[in-house]
Amino acid sequence: MKLVRVILVVTVSTMLALAQQKPHAKVIKLANEGKEQTLLSGPPDTVSMRSGLITLQPQQTVGKHTTGHHEEMLVILEGEGKMLFDDGISLAIAANHVLYCPPETGHDVINTGTGTLRYIYIVSSTDLK
Q1: How many C-beta neighbours within 10 Å does residue 51 have?
Q2: What is the C-alpha separation between 110 and 82, in angstroms, rounded?
Q3: Using CA atoms, how far apart are residues 100 and 44, in angstroms rounded to an integer?
Q4: Contacts of 54 (CB under 8 A, 6+ apart)
Q5: Are 73 and 98 in contact (CB under 8 A)?
Q6: Phi, psi (deg, nearest 5) at residue 63
Q7: In the structure, what pLDDT confidence band is assigned to residue 14 with cuts at 50, 70 and 90?
């Protein structure tokens, strides 16, 4: 039991130290491989943002999910598709467009085109304190 407590204290201490580090400027190269590439993952990379590069093949979806207590923005780099919302509304997406998805919104993204759909998502918490 003491060993578990020691590990827990080290883990909490490490997490607190990471949370107190200041973000720093960086350049991130976008990869063209795989389904998702994490770009920013929160502290210490950023104050509250997370982001990634998504690559979907024709008819592939990212999977139904919710924004929770976050705002989400999609920057469409290549291809075309739809953002489908839980309320039945859908928005067409295409290269050189930006979409905004408000907090507490269930949604999915599907590639409706014949080529690759690539976009960057940026998620920011609305619970900043």
Answers
A1: 21
A2: 5
A3: 25
A4: 35, 36, 62, 109, 117, 118, 119, 120, 121
A5: yes
A6: 105, 140
A7: low
Q: In this predicted model, what pLDDT tens digit does every residue of 37-69 receive, in sequence order?
A: 888 777 777 778 889 999 999 999 999 999 889
Alpha-carbon torsion 57, 35, 73, 64, what sign?
Answer: positive
Could you give the CA distance from residue 75 to residue 64 in angstroms, rounded to a whole number? 18
Q: Which domain holds residue 49?
A: 2-125
Number of structural domains in the chain: 1
Residue 29: count of CB within 10 angstroms of its CB: 6
| Burial class (CB within 10 angstroms; exposed 0-12, middle 13-18, buried 19+) of 21 | exposed
pLDDT of 7 above 90: no
- Reported in sequence order, the residue ranges of 1-129 that DSSP labels E, i.e. its strands, are 36-41, 49-56, 65-66, 70-78, 80-85, 90-94, 98-101, 106-111, 117-125
**Which CATH number goes with the domain that contains 7?**
2.60.120.10
